[in-house]
Amino acid sequence: AQKVTQAQTEISVVEKEDVTLDCVYETRDTTYYLFWYKQPPSGELVFLIRRNSFDEQNEISGRYSWNFQKSTSSFNFTITASQVVDSAVYFCALSQWGTYKYIFGTGTRLKVLA
Amino acid sequence: GAVVSQHPSRVICKSGTSVKIECRSLDFQATTMFWYRQFPKQSLMLMATSNEGSKATYEQGVEKDKFLINHASLTLSTLTVTSAHPEDSSFYICSALGGEEIENIQYFGAGTRLSVL
After folding, report:
1. If you average pLDDT over every residue of chain A, what do you get?
2. Rounded Cα–Cα distance for residues B22 and B5 (Å)
3. Which of A52, A104, B9, B69 could be cross-linked to B56 through a Cys-Cys bond (beta carbons 3.0 to 4.6 Å apart)?
């Protein structure tokens, strides 16, 4: 069975702090995709990153970075120097290669306080 | 690029009426679109997969006669909530699956908040 676990329900940080959002997944597939999306209060899910199971390189995009480790089935997301605009719910998702259906985690609500 | 428009953003209707929600991919063609439902402070629940020119595939437990899906073109899918009741009140979100040029990623609309009185 496929499953995505985001154990952190809600995190509060003060602006400029770094914060890491955890994502642990389960799958029997050898080929799959992992994603992160941001859902601000407006409701729209905004695509942040896709990673396929063959590519374990970490990625950095501005203040965002992602750490993918197949050995621990984790795909963690770090925001450096957080800002109030980062306040949102962040979802991690898993997709089976070829089906494109997502299995979402339960989301982590991030509150960045000024 | 990869913009998905969902309309309306909010709708309030009386119990027993039907409501149609549109999902459009504005700058790409989407052979596959997805419809989700999200309850407050919860994750997204996939309701159905919509494929252009064919019948939608519904997830287990989703009533196909209650939630009618039509995907008549490569840029438009509609979800009709028929004979809506208060328990259908929810946040409905669509997504469109990008083609090879945008790496088969789901791009989401802004959602529709349905309130049934």
Report:
1. 94
2. 8
3. B69
Interval B36-59: pLDDT, tens = 999 888 889 999 999 888 889 999
Nearest to B102 by CA among B24, B23, B31: B31
> Tokens for A45?
């899910």
**Contact in structure between A28 and B99 (CB atoms under 8 Å):** no
How far apart, in whole angstroms, are the C-alpha atoms of residue B54 and residue B4? Answer: 21
Q: What is the pLDDT of residue B1?
A: 66
> What letter represents residue A4's amino acid?
V
Total CB pairs under 8 A between chain A and B: 45
3-state secondary structure of B113: strand
Q: Check CB contact under 8 Å for B46 and A44.
A: no
Closest CA to B81 of B63, B68, B97, B90: B68
DSSP B59: P
The B residues from 51 to 90 touching A (CB cutoff 8 Å) are none
Residue A104 Cα to chain centre, angstroms: 10
Residue B38, min C-alpha distance to chain A (Å): 10
Nearest-Cα residue of chain A relative to residue B38: A43
- Given a contact cutoff of 8 angstroms between Cβ atoms, the answer to whether B34 and B50 are in contact is yes
CB contact under 8 A, B108 and A105: no
Closest CA to B52 of B35, B67, B36, B69: B69
Which residues in chain B are contacts of A107 at CB distance < 8 A? 42-43
